[in-house]
């Protein structure tokens, strides 16, 4: 080993925990919300939160080093553009819901990652007592998950709206579209588009106010149902599956694909928006880590384009292209077309 070689990349990986917990605690304390448009000092911050100056300074310094706060020479702290836009409660793309999901729902589960590994089962919820990750039993999920999904997916949806040719797309069925991010952003970008969000009935109820707040009730319909037991609504030329299939084991993922293929007309499009693991399984990092996350959360994993292409072919769909949504929270979109079935003419 060269004397120059030091384990800094490893140390940097361990800092991930510290950085995330600083973000999570500051968000939970409402630091960025209280600083919106204003400033604080260590002393004022400590007083406001009823804490000593030492911990106050350490948290404010960590947030500054992480690019969440700016400190001037007089020791005054204010939000950066990033925290002002995304970490102030009440702003349209508030990201704190997702931070809360990771902190309160996923982080405790990672303390039991080894159990998940040894038992090959999720640990973020109890499969004996709960039907699925998405059952309405977990108050943290209910309060934060769909709000958090909206904050994450809005940016993927924007990239999809820009990257996919919508000229011939009139009506989209967003299967498992709870949170409403795709429906809202796609409709905003494409004024002639209509979208139906199909999700569990209680999720549709959570999503309805968000559609109302966007003023899109006339173009976005909500359809409550279960994609394993209910037929998917017809009349759509395009079906979207965003971050759905990785939630499920291979058998269930293929059942969902079969239901989507069934709901599409000939020449209809199926769009799978997901972070695809590379066919050679060497990465990329966001897909590989999301896939590991599926170990603690579900029985699923992030699949490869080759896997989807093979499963779709069995259902009469042909992969036409894979769009790279670089910089988006979800990094790819596979676009497949339903091939017209040949009918025997008399
Ligand atoms: C990871 S979220 C993805 C949400 C959205 N598509 C996005 O990308 O922002 C998975 C979604 O699938 C929905 N879902 C889970 N099981 C379902 C089922 N059996 N039938 C219909 N929707 C379901 C959940 O309620 C949730 O909204």
TrEMBL record:
InterPro entries reported for this sequence: COMT-like (IPR016461), COMT_C (IPR001077), COMT_dimerisation (IPR012967), SAM-dependent_MTases_sf (IPR029063), WH-like_DNA-bd_sf (IPR036388), WH_DNA-bd_sf (IPR036390)
SUPFAM superfamilies found in the cross-reference section: S-adenosyl-L-methionine-dependent methyltransferases, Winged helix' DNA-binding domain
Recorded GO MF terms: methyltransferase activity
O-methyltransferase C-terminal domain boundaries: 137-316
Keywords: Methyltransferase, S-adenosyl-L-methionine, Transferase
Keyword Chaperone assigned: no
Sequence ranges assigned to domain O-methyltransferase dimerisation in this UniProt record: 12-88
Gene3D superfamilies per the UniProt record, alphabetical: Vaccinia Virus protein VP39 (3.40.50.150), Winged helix-like DNA-binding domain superfamily/Winged helix DNA-binding domain (1.10.10.10)
Superkingdom of this protein's organism: Bacteria
GO biological process, one term: methylation
Keyword S-adenosyl-L-methionine: yes
PANTHER family for the chain: O-METHYLTRANSFERASE CICE, PUTATIVE (AFU_ORTHOLOGUE AFUA_4G14580)-RELATED
Protein name: Methyltransferase
Organism: Kitasatospora putterlickiae
Source lineage: Bacteria, Bacillati, Actinomycetota, Actinomycetes, Kitasatosporales
